[in-house]
């Protein structure tokens, strides 16, 4: 009986150790992407300390393991570009990524994005999505995420109010699920 158990235990030990090593190798090989988050409020000036959407996104990306550009000396190079940083376009995002060497540029704006939706008990329910988020990938030279969102999530008749930091983590998690 003991002779049958020993090879079985050895086999289980071998399988469990191979799973452990394959998991540690894949997690250590993951690239850490650098991100710069541009301002979302039009009248905000550097250091953009009252732009809570930007602050929430920066914290969310940081908590999900991205390298977030917050260094004043790097921002000095960006500010030298002499362009408006609120609601930039693809060419501007590409220029910013080339200037400071980041992988991703996060930008967008806050405007009224109210649409009417049909469904449920409401004939026409207004759904407000005032925050437009775009993420530009410098390597692919294109926008990889273009989403209009809000701090409120709807599930039928129920709503959930997210705070600014949950909002940032939600966007960073979505980007991580896309392979970043």
Short description:
With 180 residues, the chain is of the alpha/beta class. Helix content is 40%, strand content 27%. It folds into two domains: 1-30; 31-177, Rossmann fold (3-Layer(aba) Sandwich), CATH 3.40.50.
Write the layout of secondary structure elements.
Elements: H1 2-28, E1 34-37, H2 52-63, E2 67-68, H3 72-79, H4 90-100, E3 104-110, E4 114-119, E5 122-128, E6 131-137, E7 142-149, E8 152-155, E9 158-161, H5 164-177
Parallel strand pairs: 1-2, 1-3
Antiparallel strand pairs: 3-6, 4-5, 6-7, 8-9
Helix pairs in contact: 2-5
Key phrases:
single chain; 180 residues; alpha/beta; Rossmann fold; 2 domains; five-stranded mixed sheet; two-stranded antiparallel ribbon; 9 strands; 40% helix
Commentary on this structure:
- The chain has helices at residues 2-28, 52-63, 72-79, 90-100, 164-177, and strands spanning 34-37, 67-68, 104-110, 114-119, 122-128, 131-137, 142-149, 152-155, 158-161.
- The radius of gyration is 22 Å and the shape is globular.
- By secondary structure, it is of the alpha/beta class.
- Helix 2 (52-63) packs across helix 5 (164-177).
- It contains 5 helices and 9 strands.
- It has 2 domains: 1-30; 31-177, Rossmann fold, CATH 3.40.50.
- Mean pLDDT is 81; it is low at 19-27.
- The chain has a 5-stranded mixed β-sheet with strand order 2-1-3-6-7, with helices on both faces. A two-stranded antiparallel ribbon has the order 4-5. A two-stranded antiparallel sheet has the order 8-9.
- The chain is 40% helix and 27% strand.
- Strand 8 (152-155) and strand 9 (158-161) form a beta hairpin.
């Amino acid at each position: 009986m003991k002779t049958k158990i020993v090879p079985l235990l050895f086999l289980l030990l071998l399988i469990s150790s191979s799973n452990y090593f394959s998991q540690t190798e894949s997690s250590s090989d993951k690239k850490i992407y650098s991100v710069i988050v541009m301002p979302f409020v039009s009248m905000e000036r550097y250091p953009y300390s009252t732009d809570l959407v930007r602050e929430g996104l920066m914290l969310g990306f940081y908590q999900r393991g991205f390298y977030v550009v917050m260094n004043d000396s790097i921002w000095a190079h960006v500010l030298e570009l002499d362009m408006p940083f609120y609601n930039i376009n693809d060419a501007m995002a590409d220029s910013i990524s080339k200037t400071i060497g980041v992988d991703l540029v996060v930008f967008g704006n806050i405007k009224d994005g109210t649409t009417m939706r049909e469904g449920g008990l409401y004939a026409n329910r207004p759904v407000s999505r005032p925050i437009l988020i775009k993420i530009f990938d410098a390597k692919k030279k294109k926008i990889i995420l273009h989403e209009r969102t809000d701090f409120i999530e709807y599930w039928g008749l129920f709503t959930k109010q997210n705070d600014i930091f949950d909002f940032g983590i939600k966007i960073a998690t979505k980007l991580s699920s896309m392979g970043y």
